[in-house]
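Researcher: I'm preparing a figure for a lab meeting and need a structural model of a single chain. I don't have an experimental structure, so a prediction will have to do for now. The sequence is pasted below. Please return the structure as tokens so I can convert it later.
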Amino acid sequence: MTSTPNLQSYEDIVDYWNTNRRQLLGEYTSKQSSFVPFLLPELAVQLDSQTVLSTLAQRIGVQSMQQALNPQSTIPSPLEGTTSTNWMKQVNMVGVNVRTIQSFWNVVKYALTIPESQSSIHLLPMWEPGVVSSLYGMASWQINPEFFSTELYHAVPQLNTVEKQLKAVVNLLHAMGKTVGMDVIPHTDRYSEMALAQPQYFEWLQRKGLEIVDHRENLHQNVQGAIMSWLVRNGSAMAGRAYPSEMEDFFGSNTSEADRLHILFGPPSDYRLRLDRRASLVDWLYHKGFEPVPATMAPPYRGLEVDPDPTAKVIDYAGREWRDYRITKPEKMSRVFGPLTRYKFYDRLNDNKDWEIDFDSPRKEVWDYFCRHYAAVQEEYNLDFMRGDMSHVQMRSEGVPAETDAFYDPLGAVKAYISQHVPYFAYFAESFMAPPGVMAYGDEVEHLEASLADSTLGDLQSTVVGEEEFMENFAHYVEVAENRQVKPNFTLMTGDKDDPRFDKFYLRGNEARLFIGLFLSDLPSYQGLGFAQRDPHPTPAPNEHYTKLYVFHLEEGPKATKGPYHWGKNGGLFSNLHRIRQFAEKHWPAVQSSRSAWLLPPDASAKQKIIAWTQADSPQLLFVVNLGTEQAEFPTAIESASAQRTFQLKGLFSSLSADFDEEGNWSSDEISISPLAGGECRAYQIQ
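Model: Understood. Here is the structure written out token by token.
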């Protein structure tokens, strides 16, 4: 493997890659390295297809390559034969907002930069988006056509649809040793094809001006009638295609969803026709005042009113006035997501007069629909796990019930449904480990366990390394990991926190984030795309430098983006992280499946900033990190005897020096080494 030169500038790294490209690709193809050394993600996604295909053919074999590029074939998951979901509790994952790199094909290119120690790839939502093109506002079950690669099509003509390209990409990622996951989203765009073809599966209201005039339990029946009248007026999208004239037949089980979608909107392949027909139907419903009830977050969840603020309205391109909604009795984290609507998983009490949900009366046909559709996506693309969007939602005001059943939580239901046939299919939850009653009623960890989550995102990415909130959360996550079924992630950065509002989180301490994420085996880790090159932003950069702002697509306003995502030019950070990844190439296998033993656990009071750990069963490596990023510190005395005798320590790695070979020792009450500089990460061989 190529030694690590001291390249601290972006320009030097680019020059080094251009000069040594052939040799560096050769290290990957010959399996000397699990990733292509010194390849900036920015340059990776610019590689031409011939280079990528040739490189992968040499790495995985020509036969495997041919199989992977055949959309009728399936490359087995790296987890094939695994019978549990415990792998999720230790995995190091990378999240990819495909819109930032423009196509599924570019995910494969980006994966060339991801080492074996980060073995899992989470694809942010991949379906056709709705209002403001939000990835989380699914407009249909069709794969987002903007992720189609013309480049890949020209290189492999058989991959002539975005669906075929996605299948080939998952195949290739599996052949590269990566697990791949999708988002499971318990809501859709408010006027999605799902909501319009099955109004009975969603909750509706009728608005007149600033007043909600109706939100009865079965208001969907009025909506169904309105849709039928629109259909009579506009005719079937499929010329000459007969359809049931009675509302009960058209929306009942005798008419399949596929038939309804064809009649209402047209064939899946005709994107423009479907979009135009849906816009026409939305206009029809708007003028009758019918709107799906918007999704909400955090207690009390329920009880809506129109926001009368003059600024809480939008006039769209057709002159229609849309109003924002608000919770009538909001609490600290209450939010209303106007563009989204949640599936109606339960009946309502008292005809929904007081916006109360009847949790004892699940609407089983909705659960079945929700689970079947995600199971079909998993089966079609051979996906390995799900990320549950808004996993923190727990609406029962009494908290988590003492006993739960199959209809406790829809995200857990999807995991259980798919796991019947794919026992390794795991559930990674999007929740933030908030205190009870903040993001969810009751204890969030109890809720995650009841909903079958294997790991959860957590919120370390929303704190500054070494500060009190970071240390308090870190200590709490370690405690949860030791005592509960769900494992919190040591999260480096996420797509939704790569935003100008959160620049302060990433000004320093990023090397420590990756080092801990890779080598602390008791916690899984998560890293968002863009982290490895991210520039420090003491003041906000243009919007195009933030991946969060590509979750949607706005052309005007403070969150608008103009053109493609701009990668950072932080050569120093990339070089430092690259050294950590290269160190992991040799030493990560020794710790990946072992339990950690703390010598100096994170101090919740933040008085002690040094952490140190080794392996519980057969200690080989000692890891030490100074989470205080601004000043040097010595390790303090070890409170409990972790070693029965004195061990000699041989320095193997320092994040600040390529020539680190310091010697020290570890006894039952102390680690005797030199002080660690601010943010420094070290590894020692135990002798």
